[in-house]
Amino acid sequence: MTQKIAFQGELGAYGHEACAAARPDFDPLPCRTFEDAIEAVRKGDATLGMIAVENSTYGRVADVHSLLPESGLHIVDETFVRVHVNLLGKKTAKLDDITDAYGHPVILPQCAGFLRENRIHGHTSTDNARAAREVSEGNDVTVAALASELAAEIYDLKVLARHIEDHDRNTTRFLIMSREPDYRKRGKHGMMTSFVFRVRNIPAALYKAMGGFATNGVNMTKLESYMVDGHFTATQFYAEIEGHPDDRSVQLALEELNYFTDKLHVMGVYPAAARRHEK
């Protein structure tokens, strides 16, 4: 029986592309929201979940970092997808026909320049692949979708303009989530460790907590803060470092961090993707 991997969106979404690239032997399981994708893994309807966390043009995917710590799941891998945005229309449509285009709120800023130059009004859709499906089901040649070429194939649409993203390195990073952690893996491009923490209410606690990474030579690649439960005074940090908790330098850094925190939770230990090191 083929295992399933859950993702947010409909078939043809960029999450679907990520699943096909990273886990081609898994059947994709479309889910309406990130919460639904996480729940599918939690309930056992899927073995893995493919969760988008950040885009090189748009930035952090809203709410995902606050969802993951409470999910009960573990990060077991990461993958990077080069996001090519395409303008998809009816088979009979031409680029000059298009007056309106629909895409996810994350996609619209990524091709704002193209839309402006072609006097196309951008509109939000809950999902890029859904926008493609709705264009396919409709009869309006003036309406297009902003989506992948995979979506064009699935919904039998015409690619009116290819690779219209404003930045030529537009990339989305996805985390692969599982019900069980796997600390045995070792990656040929190194290892990553992700964790969340809250610092104790003492002067310069964050500064002191970070000191252990510097003194032990551990490279921190990400540190982000977000409010917890809507309280301005309750701040949680999401961090990623290079290395494995079994590494002595990482052990010492985490021990020092733990001294200055009242919560520390390792969310995943996983191989660094090759594309992480691309210039």
From TrEMBL:
Pathway: Amino-acid biosynthesis; L-phenylalanine biosynthesis; phenylpyruvate from prephenate: step 1/1. One of its GO terms (biological process) is L-phenylalanine biosynthetic process. PROSITE patterns: ACT, PREPHENATE_DEHYDR_1, PREPHENATE_DEHYDR_3. The keyword Lyase applies. Residues 194-271 form the ACT domain. The keyword Amino-acid biosynthesis applies. This is prephenate dehydratase.
